[in-house]
Amino acid sequence: MSLPPLHPDGGAFLAEVERRSGVRVSKCFQCEKCTSGCPVACDMDLPPNVLVRHIQLGQQDPVLASETIWICASCITCSTRCPNDIDLAHVMDALRQMSMERGTVSLPRVQAFHRSFMAALATHGRIHEIELIARYKLKTKTYLEDAELGRELFLRGRIKLLPERVRSLREVREIIHPRDSDTG
Ligand code: SF4
Ligand code: SF4
After folding, report:
1. Ligand nearest to C-alpha 92
2. Has residue 146 got a pLDDT over 60?
3. How many domains is the chain partitioned into structurally?
4. 3 lies in a domain?
5. What is the CATH number of the domain that holds 50?
6. Are 15 and 92 members of one domain?
């Protein structure tokens, strides 16, 4: 994959990503261990190591508009494999927040799911599937899609009618960024 040139204002974007994620992305030396271990790299438009290189080159637009940051499943495989201790999964979190702040929507339905999930988590401290589904369906207007699958899950007792609330709800809410959910 060919790489773009260094952006004239490249240092600013790299510095912002490093500040917000707390991860020294600049330490990457392109060994590609992150990409070779990533279970969904084949579906990404910018494989993890290429995404990192784009950040180093200050290419804000392709990074924040990439599908990669929404396809990432936060499995942390890349973070554990990196010889430079670059926590790429954490970087992805920061990039998703930055993408939402700038209104860069590459995969709107994935973003809708992300916001619905975080809002449902902020309500009870754990996921109540019916609430999550309702929030997602309202956002995407896909009311009948997967209805049969939902019915099967309900009949098998995999979807609970009533939510359960954790005792430490305040602590859970403190770690959820308002812009990550419908609460922002
Ligand atoms: S594993 Fe770490 S050093 Fe290697 S390419 Fe990925 S981020 Fe860079
Ligand atoms: S955290 Fe994301 S980028 Fe890293 S290995 Fe998992 S899916 Fe791939």
Report:
1. 2
2. yes
3. 2
4. no
5. 1.10.1060.10
6. yes
For residues 97 and 115, membership in a common domain is answered with: no
Domain that holds residue 153: 108-180
Residue 1 falls inside a structural domain: no
pLDDT tens-digit readout, 38-94: 999 999 999 999 999 999 999 999 999 999 999 999 999 999 999 999 999 999 999
- Among protein residues, the one whose CA lies closest to atom 5 of ligand 2: 38
What residue ranges line ligand 2, CB within 6 angstroms?
37-38, 40, 48, 72-78, 88-89, 92
Q: Which of 110 and 54 is assigned the larger pLDDT?
A: 54
Whose atoms come closest to the Cα of 48: which ligand? Answer: 2
Counting residues of the chain whose pLDDT is more than 70, the rounded percentage is: 95
Domain assignment present for residue 30? The answer is: yes
Burial class (CB in 10 A: 0-12, 13-18, 19+), 1: exposed
